[in-house]
TrEMBL record:
<feature type="signal peptide">
    <location>
        <begin position="1"/>
        <end position="21"/>
    </location>
</feature>
<protein>
    <recommendedName>
        <fullName>DUF5010 domain-containing protein</fullName>
    </recommendedName>
</protein>
<dbReference type="InterPro" id="IPR032178">
    <property type="entry name" value="DUF5010"/>
</dbReference>
<keyword id="KW-0732">Signal</keyword>
<dbReference type="Pfam" id="PF16402">
    <property type="entry name" value="DUF5010"/>
</dbReference>
<feature type="domain" description="DUF5010">
    <location>
        <begin position="127"/>
        <end position="426"/>
    </location>
</feature>
């Protein structure tokens, strides 16, 4: 009975998610029905014997749907995993936060106009205000063989160039592609910490020294669903949704935002139920592994664990820690990255570096060795492969075109890492 008031409040808060109503945040009476979910089987395998360290990176009107299952338009004699990547649209260069000295590789448009940008009215540089930037990035993803783009969403961030309405331009640009990418949601849960602090009157503050959002607060679901997830999927047309078994994909960042993780199964179940009420379909929820820690897997009696509610699990941090595959009830997600280097970010007390030319677990040094070996380690029966990341430049995890160099400082082709991905896809008989 200790948590009954929380279950009641969270259920009714999220059940009242109509755009025509103001959500009642106060605890009321009612109950959330129990889920009939089989006992979960979770297996997670670091694919090259890498250290099992949990990453501690610092970041970063609905209608009833016609259910569709996304299947890539490809022919192959092998089972083909879906290929997705995390896309950051928090840039507005060269005006804000675009010091090239902080980057290991500078992408086109960072300081000078993008080549062939036809319309200067919305900017001509690497910016979320610039329609042409979105179109070029999406076309390059499609040409590389990316199936799904996961925009890294913080909801309505204080920076105007990183607000939710930037998704509108991405959707517009995607719509002109001959074969539009499918769009899933990457919920950067750092935002929930900032939203909560702002709601309390403390300003939009995030980071390890800032109090976290307690999931025991019955308003917690409001910050995840009402202020974040619902608006994202209202902005993305249904025929662009990335789906698994007809259900739109939501991937989360780590649980570093929040306390009381033993309640996160209750939170995510309420979010899924609210989504189903608004959109007529339950989302396919892929949680980062910190949402399934020992605390989360031991909820109070009568409440679901996060493993019972989630549809998949993955690891964030594979650009640093090496390739990783996690499986939940038969659904496998593999995540890989090209390397990591946050040594140029101001305020990082203990920089962490994984050179791009050193393969995970050791081996011959060569340009791109970390990404090449990581892709080669993916099990053949993986369902979804995640590239970490398309364009997180300050942490040097990007694969998008840029002025990359090798260890000796010699220039590499701008699409060097994209060609590694293309080569990996050839094993399935694919040509993007």
């Amino acid at each position: 009975m200790r948590y009954r008031w929380l279950i009641i409040a969270l259920s009714l808060i999220l059940a009242a998610c109509s755009t025509e109503r103001i959500v009642d945040l106060s605890p009321t009476s009612g109950a959330i029905p129990a889920l009939a979910v089989p006992s979960p089987t979770i297996t997670a395998t670091p694919m090259t014997g890498l250290p099992t360290v949990t990453p501690t990176m610092v970041v970063p009107s609905p209608t009833v749907p016609t259910t569709q299952v996304f299947v890539p338009n490809i022919t192959s004699t092998r089972r083909v995993p879906l290929l997705g990547t995390f896309f950051f649209y928090w840039y507005n260069c060269p005006q804000q936060e675009c010091d090239p000295g902080l980057l290991r590789a500078v992408p086109p448009g960072w300081l000078t106009p993008l080549p062939n940008d036809p319309d200067p009215r919305d900017g001509v540089s690497y910016s979320s205000y610039n329609y042409d930037w979105y179109e070029q990035e999406l076309r390059t993803m499609a040409a590389t063989g990316i199936d799904i783009v996961f925009p890294v969403s913080w909801g309505d961030h204080p920076h105007p160039w990183f607000r939710q309405d930037r998704i509108d331009l991405l959707v517009q640009a995607n719509g002109v592609l001959e074969h539009p990418l499918r769009i899933g949601m990457f919920v950067d849960t750092t935002a929930q910490q900032g939203m909560y602090q702002e709601f309390l009157g403390n300003g939009y503050r995030v980071g390890p020294q800032v109090p976290r959002l307690p999931l025991s607060d019955p308003r917690s679901g409001y910050f995840f669903y009402n202020l974040h997830i619902r608006d994202f999927f209202t902005r993305v047309p249904r025929d662009m949704w990335a789906t698994i078994e007809g259900r739109p994909i939501i991937i989360t960042y780590t649980a570093l935002c929040c306390d009381d993780l033993e309640l996160n199964g209750t939170l995510w179940r309420a979010v899924k139920e609210a989504f189903s009420t608004d959109f007529g379909v339950e989302p396919w929820l892929i949680l980062e592994e910190t949402w399934l820690n020992s605390q989360a897997l031991a909820p109070p009696d009568g409440l679901p664990s996060s493993a019972e509610v989630a549809d998949g699990v993955y690891r964030w941090g594979t650009a640093l820690l090496g390739p990783y595959t996690a499986e939940l009830r038969g659904f496998r997600v593999s995540s890989v990255g090209p390397g990591f280097d946050n040594s140029r970010i101001p305020g990082v007390a203990e920089p962490r570096i994984q050179p791009r030319d050193e393969p995970p677990g050791g081996g011959p040094i060569a340009p791109g060795a970390f990404l090449r070996a990581s892709l080669a380690a993916i099990p053949p029966d993986t369902d979804l492969v995640l590239i970490e990341t398309w364009n997180e430049w300050p942490e040097n995890t990007a694969v998008a075109p840029a002025a990359y160099t090798d260890r000796a400082g010699r220039p590499l082709p701008p699409d060097f890492y994209l060609n590694i991905i293309r080569e990996w896809r050839k094993q399935f008989g694919l040509q993007p």
